[in-house]
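Posting this for the archive.
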Amino acid sequence: MNINTLTWAAATLLLSLIVHISMVLAIPYLSENDAWRRMLNFTQANEMLVIKDLKEGNQLWAFHAPDIKYAICRYDITRAPVLVNFKILRGYWSVAIYDDEGRNFYAADGFDLLRPEMSLMLLGSDDVKKNENALPIMVPTDQGIVVIRAPLDNQVLKSQVFDTLNQAKCEQLKAAQRIKH
């Protein structure tokens, strides 16, 4: 083999590697069927939705656990902070908050929260916390998703789990105060 053939082979291999890595990194931003877009189709902003039966049309992500029930809220803090209230039946319930790109920035389980009822106040950088009982969480984007996961380890407790999830609230505060710059 001569030096030109080796140079072209190395250049082709390097270019192929660059194209491959670029495409792998770009696919999440080019996808038209991500969890955020699917959620826009069947949720309202700042309202809690309990997913009773997971089917092909209402799955937010792949591989939902069949023994976990979900309550989700698509939050929007553009006008005012959002208050999320929910009860915890058992220590292994969890809550996670994601931005509109799917990046998780807050997660806690019932053992971390250490109380049977929880209030989270989702705040933007200009918001002032009003509710002293709520845990303040500074959100990185104006919109995102709150996911409450409730394991269903016992079929006898199924109705109690759904009743508790149905009591969860996600609501925009009416009288909110923002810092003026």
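Residues 35-178 form a domain with the Immunoglobulin-like fold (CATH 2.60.40). The chain has a mean pLDDT of 83.
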